[in-house]
Amino acid sequence: MTKCKKEQTAAENQQVKEENVDVKNQEQETPESTDTDKVAEDVVAESAKTTPRNDEAEEWKDKYVRLSAEFDNYRKRTLREKMDLIESGGEDVIKAMLGVMDDFDRALGAMQSATDVASVREGVELISQKMRDALKAKGVAEIEAVGEALDTDLHEAVAQFPAGEDKKGKVIDVVQKGYKLKEKVIRYAKVVVGE
Fold first, then answer.
1. Does domain 141-195 have CATH number 2.30.30.230?
2. In what order do the strands lie in the sheet with 184-187?
3. pLDDT tens-digit series, residues 66-95
4. What is this structure's pTM?
5. Could you tell me where the beta strands, DSSP code E, fall in 37-161?
6. Alpha-carbon distance 171 to 148, whole Å?
7. Rounded distance between C-alpha atoms, residue 16 and residue 22, angstroms
8. pLDDT band for position 114 (50/70/90)?
9. Are strands 155-161 and 189-194 parallel, antiparallel or unpaired?
10. Which residues of 161-183 are buried (b: 16+ CB within 10 A; e: fewer)?
11. Rounded to an integer, what distance in angstroms lies between the CA atom of residue 82 and that of residue 6?
């Protein structure tokens, strides 16, 4: 029996060792599962912290996209308005000139059958005055040149002519009249300057 007892004791010792190993394995698994639980809790806590940040970021991103779209629409609208202005910008000037054109047509028709040159001359002078008034109403003004000192911002010297000392550097004659639209020169006056 002693042999049996030894075998039984050895078997019991083996069983106890196996149970101890199982308990150790369970203890080792428990900390791992605890670490996993802690990591999961940290992720949940972190996501709870970042959710307001993510919401705020999404809100700002949405505002940025909307603002960008609004600006793009504004840019397209202003380009379209500029194109419309360019296309129809001279419309009011053209309408003012149409009346003058009608008067020229009537004058040309009258000149073919007219015998009185004085009345034709008077008609052309009236048309010329009407044209000047129409241009003046649109802000066009003639550049005064004769007797003025040469101003390269307004005049373009095309020739020099010998003149007395009192006319040196001054405009003697105008070859082609110059015009300003409000304060901007649209055509320089071509002038002859005294030397």
1. no
2. 140-142, 179-181, 184-187
3. 999 999 999 999 999 998 888 777 787 888
4. 0.53
5. 140-142, 155-161
6. 6
7. 10
8. confident
9. parallel
10. eeeeeeeeebbbebeeebebeee
11. 109
